[in-house]
Design goal:
Elements (H helix, E strand, L loop, with lengths): L17 H12 L15 E2 L13 H4 L1 H10 L6 E5 L2 E6 L2 H9 L3 E2 L28 H12 L2 H20 L6 E3 L1 H17 L2 H4 L2 H16 L4 H4 L6 H27 L6 H7 L4 H32 L1 H18 L7 H6 L3 H6 L2 H14 L3 E6 L5 E3 L2 E3 L4 E5 L1 H4 L34 E2 L2 E2 L3 H18 E6 L27 E6 L5
Bound molecules: 2-acetamido-2-deoxy-beta-D-glucopyranose (NAG) (2 copies).
One 2-acetamido-2-deoxy-beta-D-glucopyranose binds next to helix 13, helix 17 and helix 19.
Length: about 500
């Protein structure tokens, strides 16, 4: 999973908001105050001025990110290049060597590159060299708590509640035949499981509360705009929306904490663990919001896409179903038992090892849908060497997923969803070091991989056991191929074209 951010990433809004244009004029007044330092001699080539405007910087970073990167790479002798976003100096990297430095260099900070959702969320400072991590210990605190909460025994313990959650949400779908938008229905299931695992039981167990909370998260996600990077000091409408939604989330969790304190009520959940550890309220809320956000944004989208890819291909659909049926039958051969009970019979070991096809399906869904750039910052006092160039101290560093995940020299027909590319005899993802980075890589692997895989396998396995389904548009026209991702997007996003799952209950006795 990718760490959530408010500042640098995640905008859904392709163009600068109106307010940004409105302030553009006045911004020019600031021009002289915002003059940029001379370009460091050994840093990669600076993009020409039409790509890298005064004051604003690289507008195409927001409007057409992949095209922007590809042009930058093409016009640079080394494939690395520099540009500005407002007052932030950024190095864009590409190629095998740079990728390894990006993932492995110990002088690059991830929290300083990304920003945390709450607590004033590091507004990346203008003055170069200044420490942007407003909470220096937060990342390690976050990692410690996540690692505890996502321990295997907890996952195992939660499998049964997860199955009940999934079944209950699927029960709410129109029962006979129908179509569902997985980016709503499956998305909500992921939110529920994530809330159950790293959030609060009160919310996970109450659909009304659950949906309300999801709305707040979505508001925050959608109201993060490029403006907040270029003019971090500017109060925009989006900024207010985000602040209000953030405030409501804060009060929601604070209310739950207060209630438990006053009534002495306890729950068996992450919130209780954090309270028991004596964490202060701000850390608790920051933790939960950050963890849920990271899980939701990525897994919610991936899980939905995985089902739509499987439903678009009869070939893979049949194979996945055979794999799932095989495991379910192995642990619960009696097909007359309720499905919930049959799934509860599958141990965690089986979820982790007996679904290789699901794993390949997920891998290729992630490869196609992991959009945008990753971030780091050189937090060392010195420059970091990369080939014959350097990344100056304090610079931000970006690497675009497509540089590796859509590289035709690594992945044949890179825009095609094809799980067989990971079969041991092809193993395209092992052609070069770090050429599949969907679960993070190097110094920053995703902390939630095990949980994310488990929940996605559960959802897909239950869905394909419970229903006959295929993938279609909103008029019911079958998709042989899921519409391609918008590679210029900034992060995992719901698709723009309508994509539905058309399902009917499966006759298990057949
Ligand atoms: C669920 O939450 C809603 C809104 O917070 C509340 O009105 C309702 O009573 C709750 N339902 C249950 C079963 O606790
Ligand atoms: C899905 O995609 C994200 C990025 O969008 C990736 O980092 C993450 O590992 C995947 N999450 C899953 C499969 O839960």
């Amino acid at each position: 999973m990718v760490f959530p951010t408010t500042d640098i990433q995640l905008s859904r809004i392709p163009l600068l908001s109106l307010s940004a244009y409105a302030t553009l004029a006045s911004a020019f007044i600031f021009f002289f105050f915002f003059r940029r330092p001379a370009h460091p001699l050994k840093a990669p080539k600076l993009l020409p001025i039409f790509e890298n405007l005064p004051v604003l910087g690289a507008v195409r970073f927001f409007t057409a990110r992949l095209d922007f990167f590809r042009d930058g790479i093409r016009n640079s002798p080394t494939g690395n290049f520099c540009f500005w976003l407002g007052q932030h100096f950024i190095v864009g990297l590409s190629g095998d060597e740079s990728r390894q430095v990006f993932f492995q260099n110990t002088k690059f900070g991830i929290a300083e590159g990304y920003a945390v959702l709450f607590g004033g969320g590091p507004r990346v400072k203008n003055d170069e060299g200044a420490d942007v991590a407003q909470e220096p210990g937060f990342l390690s605190y976050f990692a410690r708590r996540v690692n505890h909460l996502l321990r295997r025994e907890y996952l195992a313990k939660n499998i049964s509640p997860f199955i009940h959650d999934i079944q209950a949400r699927l029960d709410e779908l129109p029962s006979q035949t129908g179509m569902t938008d997985p980016f709503n229905s499956i998305y909500l299931i992921v939110f529920q499981l994530t809330m159950r695992m790293v959030g609060s039981a009160e919310i996970a167990s109450n659909t009304t509360k659950l949906k309300k909370t999801l709305k707040l998260f979505e508001t925050i996600e959608q109201s993060t705009t490029p403006t907040s990077i270029i003019f971090p000091w500017m109060p925009t409408l989006a900024f207010f929306k985000r602040t209000i939604a953030g405030g409501r989330l804060f009060h929601l969790f604070k209310g739950l904490m207060d209630d438990r304190k006053i009534t002495g009520r306890r729950e068996d959940d992450a919130l209780q663990y954090l309270i028991d550890m004596g964490d202060d309220i701000k850390s608790v809320i920051q933790f939960i919001v950050g963890a849920v956000f990271a899980g939701q944004l990525n897994t919610g989208i991936n899980a939905s896409f995985m089902l739509t890819y499987i439903g678009s291909s009869r070939y893979w659909y049949d194979r996945v179903r055979a794999e799932v049926d095989g495991v379910v039958d192995k642990y619960a051969p009696d097909r007359s038992l309720p499905l919930t009970q049959r799934f509860e019979a599958i141990p965690i070991e089986a979820w982790e090892t007996e679904f290789p096809l699901l794993d390949y399906c997920l891998r290729d869904s992630i490869r196609l849908q992991l959009l945008g750039t990753m971030y780091r910052r050189n937090i060392d006092d010195g420059d970091v060497k990369i080939g014959n160039e350097v990344i100056p101290s304090g610079a931000f560093i970006t690497y675009h997923f497509s540089d590796v995940h859509q590289d035709p020299e690594i992945y044949s027909e890179p825009l095609k969803w094809d799980p067989s590319r990971y079969f041991p005899d092809r193993a395209e993802d092992k052609k070069k070091p770090l050429c599949w980075v969907g679960w993070g890589a190097g110094r920053h692997p995703c902390l939630g991989t095990r949980f994310a895989k488990l929940e996605q396998f559960l959802i897909v396995a239950i869905f394909i056991t419970r229903y006959d389904f295929d993938t279609c548009d909103d008029k019911g026209v079958h998709y042989d191929e899921v519409p391609p991702p918008d590679l210029n997007a900034h992060a995992a996003t719901k698709p723009k074209q309508p994509i539905r799952l058309r399902y009917k209950p499966r006759d298990l006795k057949a």
